[in-house]
Write a structure and sequence with these properties.
With 99 residues, the protein is α+β, with helices and mostly antiparallel strands. The chain is 33% helix and 12% strand. It has a two-stranded parallel ribbon. The protein has a two-stranded antiparallel sheet with strand order 3-4. The two termini are 16 Å apart. The model has no long low-confidence stretch (mean pLDDT 78).
């Protein structure tokens, strides 16, 4: 079921993608997860012009997100939480989907 949704979404995205010309960047890294940030940093340190794109808004001034001692508060702060997304649903034992 997940694979079918993924393939349908991929087909939809592939048909609606338009070319965008980025000037000035050699590499565009999408997502700053466990692999994206180190990859972008290493490319930049090697002298390549690198653009790192991340979803969400800037929470740099929100102390719940930036102060490590407040990490417990960050998990409850709506501004720091990952947005609810239909791609992150799972099926409960009762058979319903939870987002």
């Amino acid at each position: 079921m997940f694979l079918r949704r993924f393939l349908g979404l991929a087909a939809l995205l592939a048909s609606s993608v338009t070319a965008v010309e980025l000037t000035g960047y050699e590499y565009v890294v999408v997502g700053s997860g466990a692999g994206g940030s180190p990859l972008a940093a290493r490319l930049a340190l090697a002298g390549h012009k690198t653009l790192l794109i991340e979803a969400g808004d800037d929470q740099g001034k929100n102390t719940n997100c930036t102060v490590p001692a407040f990490s417990v508060k960050a998990s409850e702060d709506e501004r720091c939480r990952q947005a609810r997304d239909y791609k992150t649903t799972y099926e409960t034992p009762a058979g319903t989907e939870y987002t």
